[in-house]
Specification:
Layout (H helix, E strand, L loop, with lengths): L6 H30 L5 H27 L4 H28 L2 H4 L5 H4 L5 H9 L2 H10 L7 H13 L2 H22 L6 H14 L5
Helix pairs in contact: 1-2, 2-3, 3-9, 6-7, 6-9, 7-8, 9-10
Length: 210
């Protein structure tokens, strides 16, 4: 609000920020509800990917920067499909890194997501495809604040053996491909440097360790 920029641009950005806060708060509320709801669907989780992570991680920063740079509504609409797809890919890879990465790399304990009972695409796939005993074990561990290292290791093994990790990574790759296609479709709007940077940002997500 206090930046040295034309008032019209500042008002437009404040409108974007206000909308982002409302959508993100809705997504965060849905994310919390998913942790305490017995029957969480893939659709419920996908909505959180869109409303929460994609909105504040990619869409809002891109829209704000573009508006301050003088972009019109057509330009911000054109970048939206890219931003939403990359935002979803970011969350999917974050869910894998959060459990299989180290504290030093991710900045949090790998046990946190399971202790909090976080429902992710990764976990939902495992619950749907693991055998009965493994599924029951995961259900017991989700939200278990006293989760022990040995129990955590079994959870990781189930995520791998059920194909959940492979599925989540594959889905992230699909979103990255979708994002890059959307970007190339509107390539005439952007500079080559801008296109290359955003392509590289999407590719980076598939190999991130933190």
């Amino acid at each position: 609000a206090n930046l040295e920029a034309p008032q019209e641009l500042r008002l437009n950005v404040l409108s974007i920020m206000n909308r982002t806060m409302m959508v993100t708060a809705h997504g965060q509320t849905s994310d919390i509800m998913n942790e305490v709801t017995a029957d969480v669907t893939i659709e419920n989780i996908e909505k959180v990917l869109e409303w929460k992570t994609a909105c504040y991680t990619l869409l809002n920063p891109l829209h704000v920067g573009m508006v301050f740079a003088g972009a019109d509504c057509h330009a911000t609409d054109a970048i939206t499909p890219y931003a939403m797809a990359v935002g979803k890919a970011f969350q999917l890879t974050d869910d894998v890194v959060g459990i299989f990465g180290s504290t030093e790399e991710s900045g949090k304990s790998p046990l946190d997501d399971i202790r909090e009972g976080k429902r992710t695409i990764l976990m939902a796939y495992a619950l749907e495809h693991a055998d009965k005993s493994d599924r029951n074990f995961l259900i017991q561990m989700l939200g278990n604040r006293q989760l022990k290292p040995a129990e955590f290791e079994r959870c990781k093994a189930i995520l791998l053996e059920s194909g959940a990790v492979k599925h989540t990574k594959s889905l992230a790759e699909q979103f990255v491909h979708e994002a890059q296609q959307a970007l190339d479709k509107e390539a005439g709007r952007w500079s080559n440097d801008g296109i290359q940077f955003l392509h590289g940002l999407a590719d980076y997500l598939l190999n991130r360790s933190a």
